[in-house]
């Protein structure tokens, strides 16, 4: 992508009258909750699905309120811990299993991803969150606190030499049960999910840091640079160097 095209895109985005157009798009998706918070955890934007689940009559009632104002305390505490980690590290939170409330106020599980929002100086000023309902796995009893704890552990320690057997033990499941749930919920085996977590972390670092590729390979759990390059190309179709050039300059050669 040329510099001219980047400039054209930026000019178009600046012409938009309001970021609320994005919020309205998510209003059409009742099984997806979208929200934006500031650094203090106050809601700035919220999709209609989230308004319903919080028992609010309209979006205005959510403005300036925190998770502790709108959700049961254990859920609010978990959301806040995630937010604080994102603000502290600057790293996105991807594919977290979280408790949610469905429109009928019954509880279930969702898959949440959070991305930091930065100002023109690169400072984090808030976050955007998307949560996708896992209605069928929830009803089938495939997700519980133990399984969510195992996924939390995997996402916190993916750069280490994890064994699937240990993750199953954390989730208080047999190896076969754990693998069956992974494939049903994430459509990946546990080993594939670990690779996905490592590649996702490497992609973030390639895009937003100047660290050498060999160093990124080390801190994301790959044995060496060639190991990262091989897996990264399998997943993205690009080498780490090509990916870095593409996201920064719109080219890969």
Automatic annotation (TrEMBL):
Keywords, ordered alphabetically: DNA-binding, Transcription, Transcription regulation
CDD domains registered for this protein in UniProt: PAS
Protein name: AraC family transcriptional regulator
Lineage: Bacteria, Pseudomonadati, Pseudomonadota, Gammaproteobacteria, Lysobacterales
Every HTH araC/xylS-type domain range: 148-246
Organism field: Dokdonella soli
InterPro entries: AraC_XylS_family_regulators, Homeodomain-like_sf, HTH_AraC, HTH_AraC-typ_CS, PAS, PAS-like_dom_sf, PAS_4
Membrane spanning stretches: none
């Amino acid at each position: 992508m040329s510099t001219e095209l980047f400039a054209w895109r930026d000019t178009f985005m600046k012409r938009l009258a309001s970021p609320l157009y994005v919020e309205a798009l998510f209003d059409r998706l009742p099984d997806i909750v979208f929200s934006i918070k500031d650094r203090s955890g106050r809601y700035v934007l919220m999709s209609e699905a989230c308004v319903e689940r919080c028992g609010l009559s309209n979006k205005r009632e959510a403005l300036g309120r925190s998770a502790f104002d709108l959700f049961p305390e254990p859920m609010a505490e978990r959301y806040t811990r995630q937010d604080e980690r994102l603000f502290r590290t600057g790293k996105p939170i991807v594919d977290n299993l979280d408790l949610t409330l469905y429109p009928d106020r019954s509880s279930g599980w969702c898959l949440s991803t959070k991305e930091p929002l930065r100002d023109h100086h690169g400072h984090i000023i808030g976050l955007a969150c998307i949560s996708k309902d896992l209605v069928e796995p929830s009803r089938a009893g495939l997700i519980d606190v133990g399984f969510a704890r195992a996924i939390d552990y995997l996402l916190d320690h993916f750069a280490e030499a994890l064994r699937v057997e240990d993750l199953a033990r954390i989730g208080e499941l047999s190896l076969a049960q754990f693998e069956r749930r992974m494939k049903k919920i994430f459509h990946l085996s546990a080993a594939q999910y670990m690779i996905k977590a490592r590649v996702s972390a490497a992609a973030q670092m390639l895009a937003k840091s100047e660290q050498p590729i060999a160093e990124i390979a080390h801190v994301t759990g790959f044995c060496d640079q060639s190991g990262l390059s091989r897996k990264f190309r399998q997943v993205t179709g690009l080498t780490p160097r090509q990916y870095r050039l593409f996201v920064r300059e719109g080219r890969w050669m």
